[in-house]
C-alpha cells in the first residue's frame, strides 16, 4: 500500500475570480490518480493546504512525523515546488522508506498542466526506487540534497 500525503502547493491551486488570484484549494489528487488510471493500492491523507512559500519548520516537522508514523514503506508527497527541496532534505531523517515528492508548475485544474504526468511519474518512481528521498518532476528523479528549482527555467535541476 502506498501512502500519499498532500500538502498543498500549485498542484492544488484554484483561481478565485473575485480575488483575481490563485489560492490552494481542496486536493484534486483522487481525480489525478483516476485520470492516470490508478484506482487502488494507495491511501490519501491531507496534511496541509499551503503554498510551499508559506511553509515553515513546524510544517516540515508535521510532514516528517506523519511519514515516520505511517506504516507504509513507500510514500508519495504532493508539495509546492518552491520549497520542495527543503522538505526533501528534512525527510532524509527517515530511514528504510522510499519517499517521493512531486508537484506541478501549473495548477492541476488548468488545461496545460504537468500535474497528471508528474503524479503518474511519482507513482512509478516510488515503486521502483530503493529506500531514500527523491523529487520526481517532469520526467527526472533527483536525490534529496542534490536538487534545486531553477526559477527562470521553471524546472528542477541538479544542484
List keywords for this structure.
single chain, 159 residues, alpha/beta, Rossmann fold, 6-stranded mixed beta sheet, two-stranded antiparallel sheet, asparaginase activity, Asparaginase/glutaminase-like
How would you characterize this protein structure?
By secondary structure, this protein is an alpha/beta fold. The chain has one domain: L-asparaginase, N-terminal domain (Rossmann fold, 3-Layer(aba) Sandwich), CATH 3.40.50.1170. It is 26% helix and 33% strand. The chain is built from 4 helices and 10 strands; from the N terminus they run E-E-E-H-E-H-E-H-E-H-E-E-E-E. The strands form 3 sheets. The chain has a 6-stranded mixed beta sheet with strand order 4-1-5-6-7-8, sandwiched between helices. The model has no long low-confidence stretch (mean pLDDT 90).
Shape verdict: globular
Strand content: 25-35%
CATH C-level name:
Alpha Beta
Strand order of the largest sheet: 4-1-5-6-7-8
Q: Helical stretch count?
A: 4
Would you tell me the structural class of the helices and strands? alpha/beta
Radius of gyration: 14 Å
Quick structural gist:
The protein is an alpha/beta fold and 159 residues long.
Amino acid at each position: 500500500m502506498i501512502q500519499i500525503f498532500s500538502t498543498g502547493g500549485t498542484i492544488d491551486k484554484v483561481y478565485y475570480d473575485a480575488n483575481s488570484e490563485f489560492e490552494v484549494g481542496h486536493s484534486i489528487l483522487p481525480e489525478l490518480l483516476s485520470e492516470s488510471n490508478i484506482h487502488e493500492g494507495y491511501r490519501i491523507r491531507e496534511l496541509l493546504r499551503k503554498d510551499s512559500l508559506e511553509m515553515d519548520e513546524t510544517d516540515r516537522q508535521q510532514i516528517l512525523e506523519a511519514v515516520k508514523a505511517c506504516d507504509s514503506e513507500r510514500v508519495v508527497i504532493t508539495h509546492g515546488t518552491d520549497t520542495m527541496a527543503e522538505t526533501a532534505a528534512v525527510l532524509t531523517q527517515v530511514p528504510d522508506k522510499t519517499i517521493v515528492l512531486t508537484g506541478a508548475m501549473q495548477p492541476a485544474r488548468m488545461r496545460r498542466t504537468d500535474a497528471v504526468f508528474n503524479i503518474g511519474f511519482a507513482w512509478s518512481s516510488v515503486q521502483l526506487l530503493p529506500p531514500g528521498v527523491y523529487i520526481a518532476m517532469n520526467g527526472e528523479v533527483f536525490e534529496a540534497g542534490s536538487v534545486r528549482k531553477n526559477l527562470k527555467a521553471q524546472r528542477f535541476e541538479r544542484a
